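Exercise 7. Given the encoded structure of a 686-residue chain, write a plausible sequence.
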């Protein structure tokens, strides 16, 4: 949709009026809340970290980065001016003085307001972008310095505006429509800034401090607490995705198993949401919006449709926007329940029937459990039932699929482990006072004693890591996949004068004494990874608590990993070189890694279109090599490939194509079974 000059002028007048506001001051209750938060952090956080001059310095720059992560608005002169508070913020906060935090924010608002208005003026005055000029722009914010002068800032924004305009053209927007969309984007950003209040500022300020303790310690303002309450209520309907703000973008962290987005199958972790629309309405550009405002747009009534404009992180559309539609729905417990299937593996070592149990999360119907309902629903009870069904089908072994399982109830991680081991400890917990608890134990005899493989990936976290770590330490089964997330900490909720503080108070340790924190669980056999460990996982956060060890707990050792692991790895490497679907996967991942490694982006339209064509052709070449190896007809062109290709239907595709990593896990389990001594489970006592 194009906007007439009169409409644009009207919008600009509205914007100017909305941005004329007095400097924001802190509320009377906020100084006391700040003092209370500092007291809780200092005395109760697992990391005994004093608020001193060293932390004060980190705090200052963490706060500045939280406000202006892309170095879009503030100048180097502002940073120099703010540096006078480097070693004073600690003392100021201890006495409840929030002057510095609000002064920095007000300067940020001033700079941002002026810049947005300049952008709008430039676009409204029909500034012509030279798309034939040979120039590029850095996309690595760590390498970009703060603009030294206003002229430097103008040049930086000239390039940013040009890149945004060019990206819209590459997404098939008409030139005037692209220009109008950018004007509307900056008008909306201005309105967003004008709506910030002292509650928003205080939350960002205190979270900049909390983040220095660890990534899971956060302060929630009263408004954020209410949003959280709504998010956890049964009345909420949405798409089922965990989002976070990264620079000025809304990034998908995780797609919730069983949710609408998961069922639709297109949205993936790492994708960027740049626009949101309702039903048949126009999509609203959300670049630069607050996360809670983006979430509000995505929420809606059950069975209604939300449109998302996304920039996929992988696949043939990577780096270019596309539009998808998702029907909102509640995420029912049944949708996240464990499920099973039987897969058949025909390999050189024999024919095997293998049971696959997928556990999307560690769930428990708490209300039914505490009301002593005999039919309460839980992960452990469902997996026990599925094991019975698989036993009837006489499977040769079981794969427990914990990929993308972000955790859940610790109790369920313990009781699920109980199904596979005899009585013994499952996990250790060390508190901030250094007291170690070993109360989480397996109490019953093993329910299933057959061969077991646990499949994990980078998004397997928390309770998933407790289970996988215990299975590995007991040598009860093989761990296959990627190094897991590394979330080995426990948080508690503490009410403060205004809002609530979520604080890390303890750490998980395996029975071997190794922490699951930071390092996660390292698989016995590693599979190709979709995720960059430098970007995803606990180790990607510089303030994450470190990995360490405590004393091991005496525990049994089973004989189920008493096989030559190197033989399994050699056979796996051989298939990676020969199996068409694994070769395709590895080549596609390599193309993704190459694109991730790029530090600059061209601002020349011809170059960008050529790069797009080359990327699409490279993906087609990989797909055609796979098809040739499988005796299928190749696609003659990218256009024909996109025209012929039907939407993926998992029910009609071979497992080797729809989930090559699970299929390969089946091959590894088949190799494992062929090497496993045909004898009953032996136990080495502690």
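Solution.
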């Amino acid at each position: 949709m194009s906007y007439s000059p009169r409409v644009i002028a009207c919008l600009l007048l509205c914007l100017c009026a909305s941005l004329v506001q007095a400097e924001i001051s802190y509320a009377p209750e906020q100084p006391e809340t700040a003092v209370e938060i500092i007291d809780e952090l200092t005395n109760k956080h697992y990391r005994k970290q004093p608020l001193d001059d060293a932390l004060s310095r980190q705090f200052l720059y963490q706060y500045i980065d939280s406000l202006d992560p892309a170095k879009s608005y503030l100048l180097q002169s502002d940073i120099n001016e703010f540096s006078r508070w480097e070693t004073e913020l600690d003392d100021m906060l201890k006495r409840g003085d929030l002057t510095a935090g609000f002064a920095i924010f007000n300067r940020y608002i001033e700079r941002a307001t002026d810049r947005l208005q300049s952008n709008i003026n430039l676009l409204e005055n029909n500034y012509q972008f030279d798309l034939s000029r040979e120039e590029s722009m850095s996309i690595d914010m760590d390498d970009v310095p703060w603009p030294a002068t206003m002229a430097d800032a103008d040049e930086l924004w000239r390039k940013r505006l040009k890149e945004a305009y060019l990206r819209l053209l590459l997404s098939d927007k008409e030139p005037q429509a692209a220009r109008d969309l950018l004007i509307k984007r900056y008008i909306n950003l201005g309105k967003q800034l004008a709506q910030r209040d002292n509650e928003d500022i205080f939350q960002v300020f205190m979270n900049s401090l909390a983040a220095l303790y660890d990534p899971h310690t956060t302060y929630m303002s009263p408004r954020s607490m209410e949003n959280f309450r709504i998010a956890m209520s049964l009345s909420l309907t949405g798409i089922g995705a965990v989002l976070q703000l990264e620079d000025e973008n809304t990034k998908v962290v995780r797609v919730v198993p069983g949710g609408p987005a998961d069922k639709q199958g297109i949205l993936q972790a790492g994708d960027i949401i740049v626009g949101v629309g309702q039903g048949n309405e126009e999509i609203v550009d959300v670049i630069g919006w607050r996360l809670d405002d983006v979430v509000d747009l995505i929420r809606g009534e059950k069975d209604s449709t939300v449109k998302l404009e996304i920039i996929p992180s992988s696949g043939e559309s990577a780096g270019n926007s596309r539009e998808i539609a998702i029907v909102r729905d509640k995420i029912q417990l049944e949708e996240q329940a464990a499920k099973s299937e039987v897969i058949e593996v025909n390999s050189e070592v024999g024919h095997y029937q293998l049971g696959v149990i997928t556990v999307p999360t560690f769930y428990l119907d708490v209300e039914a459990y505490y009301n002593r309902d005999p039919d309460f629903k839980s992960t452990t009870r469902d997996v026990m039932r599925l094991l019975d069904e698989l036993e009837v089908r006489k499977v040769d072994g079981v794969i427990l699929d914990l990929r993308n399982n972000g955790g859940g109830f610790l109790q369920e991680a313990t009781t699920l482990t109980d199904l596979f081991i005899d009585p013994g400890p499952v996990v250790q917990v060390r508190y901030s006072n250094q007291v170690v608890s070993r109360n989480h134990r397996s109490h019953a005899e093993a329910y299933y004693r057959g061969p077991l493989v646990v499949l994990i990936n980078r998004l397997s976290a928390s309770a998933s890591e407790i289970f996988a770590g215990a299975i590995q330490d007991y040598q009860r089964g093989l761990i296959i996949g990627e190094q897991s997330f590394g979330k080995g900490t426990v948080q508690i909720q503490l009410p403060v004068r205004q809002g609530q503080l979520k604080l890390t108070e303890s750490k998980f340790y395996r029975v071997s004494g190794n922490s699951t924190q930071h390092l996660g669980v390292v698989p016995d056999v590693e599979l190709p990874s979709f995720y960059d460990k430098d970007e995803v996982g606990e180790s990607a956060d510089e303030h994450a608590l470190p990995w360490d060890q405590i004393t091991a707990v005496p525990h049994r050792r089973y004989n189920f990993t008493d096989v030559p692991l190197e033989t399994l790895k050699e056979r796996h490497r051989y298939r990676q070189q020969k199996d068409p679907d694994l070769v395709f996967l590895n080549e596609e991942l390599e193309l993704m890694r190459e694109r991730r490694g790029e530090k600059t982006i061209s601002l020349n339209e011809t170059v960008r279109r050529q790069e797009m064509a080359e990327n699409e052709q490279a993906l087609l070449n990989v797909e055609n090599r796979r098809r040739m190896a499988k005796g299928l007809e190749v696609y003659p062109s990218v256009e024909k490939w996109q025209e012929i290709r039907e939407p993926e239907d998992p029910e009609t595709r071979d497992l080797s194509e729809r989930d090559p990593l699970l299929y390969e896990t089946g091959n590894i389990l088949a190799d494992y079974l062929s090497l496993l001594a045909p004898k009953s489970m032996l136990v080495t006592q502690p």
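Remark. The chain has a mean pLDDT of 86. Students should compare their own answers with the one above.
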